[in-house]
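Hey, I'm writing a tutorial for new members on how sequence and structure tokens pair up, and I'd like a real worked example in the thread rather than a made-up one. If someone can provide the structure for the chain below, I'll link this post from the tutorial.
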Amino acid sequence: MGGKPWRFSAEKVLPLPLAQVWELLSNTEHLNRTIGLPSVVYDAPVVTADDFYRQASIKLLGLISVHWKEYPFRWVRHERYSVLRVFEGGLLERVVGEVELQESPAGTVVRVVTQITPRHVLAYLIAPLVGHKAVRDVMRYCEAAVALRRSGSASPYPRSRTRSPVSPTHLRGRLQQLAQMPIQQDLMASLQRHLQEGTDEEVLRMQPYALAETWHSAPREVLRLFLYATKVGILTLQWEMMCPNCRVPKAEYDSLRSLETRYHCDLCGVNFEADFER
């Protein structure tokens, strides 16, 4: 067994509303991807009489496999969340990550905490590096969000900067077809610019109503644009069922007809129902 946990923390007041900071930090999939953490591979949940977790693993530097048991996130909306990871072998025994939010007159107080329990003596050398980096990366992510807001950026959340190339000839031909459809014509320029200049993340899962707010356009007109863009082959349409707690997609469908009504989030340990009227 390891020794006493090492605790690393950072606290900062962000000049942003509490609800916006919660959206910023509760989307852990986006947060982890943006700060450069390796992609996590999850196995099926393990359920016993006295335990519930998922086996998870990553590849460090693409070579070293690290395995752990990940327990369900604990959430209090607009207040805090935490996750426990118990490692199987290696230098560390367990890691607990926590985020706490508190409304203040100046905006929102953000407190990020990482607790690391070493397993071996050598871990005492790397624990400070890992712990300080973990809280520092999240704080830098928050600071980047503040900088984006101050700059007047249309996207309030930091994003990765990877961009896949777009075929101008192919896109131009499809846009010519789209121009013949009963859409609001001035929205085509916004769509074209978004596809050509947006990062992979911004283009991969576009939400018409969210973009309508960014483009200062009528939501139904942007939705109409997206539907006809799908018809001419510019976009593809998918429905994602997202957990209301961790906001991570649980399932994807190509049509509403194939949607199910009940879902289970292994990370949060909750069941939820899809409200088709909304």
